[in-house]
Write a sequence for this structure.
């Protein structure tokens, strides 16, 4: 199966498009990888001026059921922190949540150490540590929901 044909990749592409539009509407110039048939660990580079550049990863998934939180693989987190330190680049995470219709943004430098939600391979942070930056339209939520691969019921507490 071609990488781009995978359901989760299709959903991720929609989430990335939402963030690209959001950033462009805020005046950013956006750069995306041109390699299409492989996973990439940075989804977007963006700049608003010629003095700063931002590396961005977009996670397109609903928050956890048990916590008002979002998370990423610990390995990815370590990769992002290493890049940030080695290249002195600002790194942001965007979480596109089709269930709640919200987009949260987190500056990696401002996040706490986070917690491991029942899985030592996941690092998570509470939504209150992030900025709510965008509300999804009903059409965007519907598009994303078509590609939902969650194999358990979404029932947040």
């Amino acid at each position: 199966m071609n990488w781009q044909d995978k359901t989760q990749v299709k959903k991720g592409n929609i989430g990335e498009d939402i963030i690209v539009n959001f950033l462009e509407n805020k005046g950013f110039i956006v750069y995306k990888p041109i390699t299409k048939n492989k996973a990439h660990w940075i989804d977007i580079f963006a700049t608003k001026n010629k003095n700063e550049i931002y590396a961005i990863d977009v996670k397109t998934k609903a928050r956890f059921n048990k916590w008002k939180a979002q998370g990423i693989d610990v390995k990815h987190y370590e990769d992002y922190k290493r890049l940030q330190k080695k290249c002195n680049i600002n790194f942001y995470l965007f979480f596109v949540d089709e269930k709640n219709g919200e987009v949260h943004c987190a500056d990696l430098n401002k996040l706490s150490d986070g917690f491991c939600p029942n899985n030592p391979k996941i690092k998570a942070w509470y939504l209150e540590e992030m900025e709510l930056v965008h509300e999804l339209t009903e059409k965007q939520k519907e598009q994303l929901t078509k590609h939902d691969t969650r194999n358990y019921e979404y029932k947040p507490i």
In short: The chain has a mean pLDDT of 92. The first strand starts at residue 29 and ends at 31. Residues 7-25 form the longest helix (19 residues).
